[in-house]
């Protein structure tokens, strides 16, 4: 017998025993016994009733035990309690019926959004850029010839249902020795890549180990390099070099492109986009996390043809060397330049004021709030793009992030058609 079917057959056996118990209990309580055994009616009734109740209780206990045992073997952690079971039932019954959301991007912004989104739906597909070439990911990419795992690792952990200790372990960064600067989670994915001989399989198996809600997919399996063409004519090579070099040159980015020029998306990613109730771009670095995904062959047309509404989430703050002095309209034009004019349906914008002491810290790095310019909303509306505004700030340890829960509520409302589209 195949081992994977054995638990199901055991549970089925205990349920069958419970059905028999119910049958005997009904016999014990019916007048059938009285008709058949007039002389011993009370004794037979009591015996059948006791046997029936015993079998029912025994069946329920054994079935419940097998289900819990199966959960322990396959998943989340060995210390299952009533709260865990309630959460699992909630996720299965409620979240599994949530809208199908595809989120495209990379970096910290995407992982922050995913942590909130998984509280509203389990039908999530995160499609992540693989253009990263800096830090620990860049070293692994160069040494092992693998795709960069950093952004993908962050998204997997954001969607994982695992113990805090395991998350701390996978987030741990070595600060001494030959591994200084390396993240343990990146090394884990690198090991899985070696074991399975495929980056795609490495991501899937890592997701299985960590009981990930939804899916995390690389946009492409090609070894791509990002280039930025500046308005002053310079070209910068490498994702990690773009903001650094451009900060020195003080020029706006005109466009970006990738080499090789031909790269293909994963079939699974294309299918997820086509089937989505909502397609989200960002939040994340405009030119190095979000737009690189749009440079993969045919992905713009795939997104455009998909029936789900397309939403772009602007960053809360500008990024030095990348989006200096950009307004909301500037961000949208960056997306449109690398896609098509009628690509987006909605833009989500933060309008909550940021505390001055926090802004001072960011200002020292050359970063400032992304605001709606005086005519931005009118211009966007004329293009058929609806601006959705909200208080979306979450500040922790002086770091500004999106309020993932509030942002997720907005997205789910759009997916469920609770936000009407403007007419032009």
UniProtKB/TrEMBL annotation:
Its main location: cytoplasm. Keywords: Cytoplasm, Membrane, Transmembrane, Transmembrane helix. The chain crosses the membrane at residues 12-34, 40-60. GO terms for cellular component: cytoplasm. GO terms for biological process: regulation of cell shape. It is found in: Cytoplasm. HAMAP family: Gluconeogen_factor. Required for morphogenesis under gluconeogenic growth conditions. PANTHER family: GLUCONEOGENESIS FACTOR-RELATED, UNCHARACTERIZED PROTEIN YVCK-RELATED. Belongs to the gluconeogenesis factor family. This is Putative gluconeogenesis factor. It comes from [Clostridium] ultunense Esp.
């Amino acid at each position: 017998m195949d081992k994977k079917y054995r638990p199901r057959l055991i549970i089925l056996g205990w349920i069958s025993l419970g059905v028999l118990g119910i049958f005997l209990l009904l016999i014990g309580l019916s007048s059938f016994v009285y008709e058949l055994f007039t002389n011993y009616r009370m004794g037979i009734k009591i015996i059948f009733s006791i046997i029936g109740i015993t079998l029912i209780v025994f069946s329920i206990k054994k079935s419940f035990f097998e289900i819990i045992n199966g959960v322990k073997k396959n998943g989340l952690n060995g210390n299952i309690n009533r709260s865990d079971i309630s959460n699992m039932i909630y996720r299965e019954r409620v979240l599994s019926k949530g809208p199908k959301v595809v989120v495209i991007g990379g970096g910290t912004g995407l992982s922050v959004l995913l942590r909130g989104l998984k509280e509203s739906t389990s039908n999530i597909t995160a499609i992540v850029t693989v253009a990263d070439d800096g830090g620990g990911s860049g070293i692994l990419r160069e040494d092992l010839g693998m795709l960069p795992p950093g952004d993908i690792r962050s998204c997997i952990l954001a969607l994982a249902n695992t113990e805090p200790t395991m998350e701390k372990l996978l987030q741990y960064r070595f600060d001494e020795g030959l591994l200084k600067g390396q993240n343990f989670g990146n090394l884990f994915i690198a090991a899985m890549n070696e074991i399975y001989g495929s980056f795609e399989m490495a991501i899937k198996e890592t997701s299985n180990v960590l009981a990930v809600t939804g899916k995390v997919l690389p946009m492409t399996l090609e070894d791509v390099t990002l280039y930025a063409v500046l308005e002053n004519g310079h070209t910068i090579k490498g994702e990690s070099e773009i903001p650094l070099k451009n900060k020195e040159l003080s020029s706006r980015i005109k466009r970006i492109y990738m080499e090789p020029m031909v790269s293909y998306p994963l079939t699974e990613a294309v299918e997820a986009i086509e089937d989505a109730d909502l397609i989200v771009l960002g939040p994340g670095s405009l030119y190095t996390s979000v737009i690189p995904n749009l440079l993969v062959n045919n992905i713009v047309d795939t997104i455009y043809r998909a029936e789900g509404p397309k939403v772009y989430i602007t960053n809360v703050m500008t990024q030095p060397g990348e989006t200096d002095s950009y307004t909301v309209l500037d961000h949208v034009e960056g997306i449109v330049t690398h896609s098509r004019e009628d690509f987006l349906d909605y833009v989500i914008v933060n309008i909550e004021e940021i505390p001055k002491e926090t802004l001072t810290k960011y200002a020292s790095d050359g970063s400032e709030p992304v605001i709606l310019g005086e005519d931005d909303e009118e211009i966007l509306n004329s293009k058929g793009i609806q601006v959705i505004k909200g208080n979306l700030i979450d500040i922790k340890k002086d770091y500004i992030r999106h309020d993932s829960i509030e942002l997720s509520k907005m997205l789910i409302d759009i997916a469920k058609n609770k936000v009407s589209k403007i007419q032009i």
